[in-house]
Design goal:
heterodimer, A: alpha+beta, Ubiquitin-like (UB roll), DNA polymerase, domain 1, 2 domains, five-stranded mixed beta sheet, 17% strand, globular, B: 291 residues, alpha+beta, Uridine Diphospho-n-acetylenolpyruvylglucosamine Reductase, domain 2, Uridine Diphospho-n-acetylenolpyruvylglucosamine Reductase, domain 3, five-stranded antiparallel beta sheet, four-stranded antiparallel beta sheet, 14 strands
Chain lengths: 163, 291
């Protein structure tokens, strides 16, 4: 058994293979922010309650604070930085702006990642389905209605443009 | 925090040799939704983490009408919820697993971890108990079986011996005309820990009205989830009339031995144990009748 307490972790992050030196105690969240310099993913609670650190890992949305960096070896990670297409915002990002679905913005990257995962699984979620899916993302500013409106409006636009 | 060793063995033998002799200093990492928080907050002083998700045997997820469900200890609740045979044959187990945490937590958390974490409020453990599930564990001395009803021994304590690893959970095949249900009470709609919970599994006679056998369990109202055989007996032979449901509810109330804490008082939890048993029994019966 290796007695090393740090390691090089190589993962695909937003489609690019990235290797970073990570202490074994490090979370995926800390690896993304501090080692890879991807500070779009936010730290909220560090206990998996708030969803601010949501990222995609191997096709599923996870709280990156509750993933060890070492677990990301060989994984495919997608963060909020990978959502826009260059300078073209993703429909979810545009609809968040149009609906004023953010105020302080700390929860927004997590909501975008989680909402994108929802729409990939269910292109036409009901109000209740959207609220249940996003229950692990907390927003202390907006009261949620604008966020739900933005997600469902983005879903409608994406459905019509897919036709 | 002291330095941490991390390994992700790809074979069971390798994992058991890492865990052998490591005692409490080794944490078994599956979904990590309990372990990582306990580690970070200093409740578990770990010198190493052993990630078990790369071991093939622990990722088994199969249903066979003759032998039942095999659920590997590393299978996430999200993956279980997407497995159609489990939804069809054990809807109560799936609904209890899907109540654990948010979408993000579901992607990681496992039913195996729910067992090993040993919480008195472990939703899915209640369901495993009424389904007569059996836990397959392995240690340096070989494999053994622990019935789900005996797996948890106290808050945060289980029947696992030092160096032992939970491999999989086996749920016997459902008899004809049977189904199950799980209900819990939380003060919001999602993302909370049970104030109280109740699971019921039952089988109906061929008339699809009379209860042939029934098992009930309650959680978050005692140091571990509890079977309530008196509630099952009260339902057996009955047709879900008010008298039988009342008797089952009274039995759960009598078995409940809760504490008062931030989530609820003793009186409230006892009341909930009865109400939830009664409602879960009706749901399980309706599901069984529709099978």
């Amino acid at each position: 058994m290796s007695m090393d307490t740090k390691r090089i972790v190589t993962a695909s992050i937003n489609g690019a293979e990235i290797s970073v030196m990570a202490d074994n105690r490090m979370s995926l969240l800390e690896m993304l922010r501090d080692a890879a310099g991807l500070t779009g993913t936010k730290e909220g609670c560090m206990t998996g309650d708030c969803g601010a650190c949501s990222v995609m890992m191997n096709g599923r949305v996870v709280d990156s604070c509750l993933v060890m960096a070492a677990e990301a070896e060989g994984a495919e990670i997608e963060t909020v930085e990978g959502i826009a297409d260059g300078k073209n915002l993703h429909p979810l990002q545009r609809k968040f702006l149009e609906h004023a679905a953010l105020q302080c913005g700390i929860c927004t990257p997590g909501f975008l990642v989680s909402a994108k995962a929802l729409l990939e699984k269910n292109p036409d979620p009901s109000d209740a389905e959207t609220r249940y899916w996003l229950a692990g993302n907390l927003c202390r500013c907006t009261g949620y209605q604008q966020i739900i409106d933005a997600v469902r409006d983005a879903a409608a636009e994406m459905r019509s443009s897919a036709k | 925090m002291k330095p941490l060793q991390f390994s992700a063995p790809t074979s069971l033998d390798e994992a058991l040799s890492l865990l052998s002799g490591a005692g409490d200093g080794a944490g078994v990492l599956s979904g990590g939704t309990d372990l990582i928080i306990q580690y970070r907050e200093g409740h578990r002083a770990l010198g190493q983490m052993v990630d078990i998700k790369k071991i093939p045997e622990l990722n088994v997820l199969e249903f066979d009408p003759a032998s039942g469900l095999r659920l590997g200890a590393a299978v996430s609740c999200a993956v279980l919820g997407e497995f159609a045979p489990a939804r069809r044959h054990f809807p109560g187990l799936v609904e209890s697993a899907e109540l654990i945490g948010s979408t993000q937590i579901q992607s990681r958390a496992t039913v195996g971890g729910n067992l090993c974490n040993g919480s008195p409020a472990a939703d899915s453990v209640c369901s495993l108990m009424v389904l007569n599930a059996v836990c397959i564990v392995a240690g340096s001395g070989g494999k053994r079986e622990i019935p789900a009803v005996e797996f948890m021994t106290g808050p945060g304590r289980t029947a696992l011996q030092a160096g032992e690893l939970l491999l999989e959970i086996r749920v016997p095949p459902p008899p004809p005309n049977s189904s199950d249900a799980y209900l819990r009470f939380i003060p919001r709609n999602e993302m909370d820990i049970a104030v109280a919970g109740a699971a019921v599994a039952l089988t109906l006679e061929d008339d699809k009205r009379t209860v042939k056998t029934a098992s009930t369990a309650i959680c978050a109202v005692a140091p571990t989830p509890l079977m309530v055989p008196e509630a099952g007996a009260a339902l057996t032979g009955a047709q879900m009339d008010d008298a039988a449901l009342d008797a089952a509810a009274r039995a759960s109330e009598a078995a409940a031995n809760p504490i008062s804490d931030m989530r609820g008082t003793v009186e409230f939890r006892i009341h909930l144990a009865g109400v939830l048993t009664r409602r879960a029994a009706v749901i399980a019966k309706n599901r069984a009748a529709a099978n």
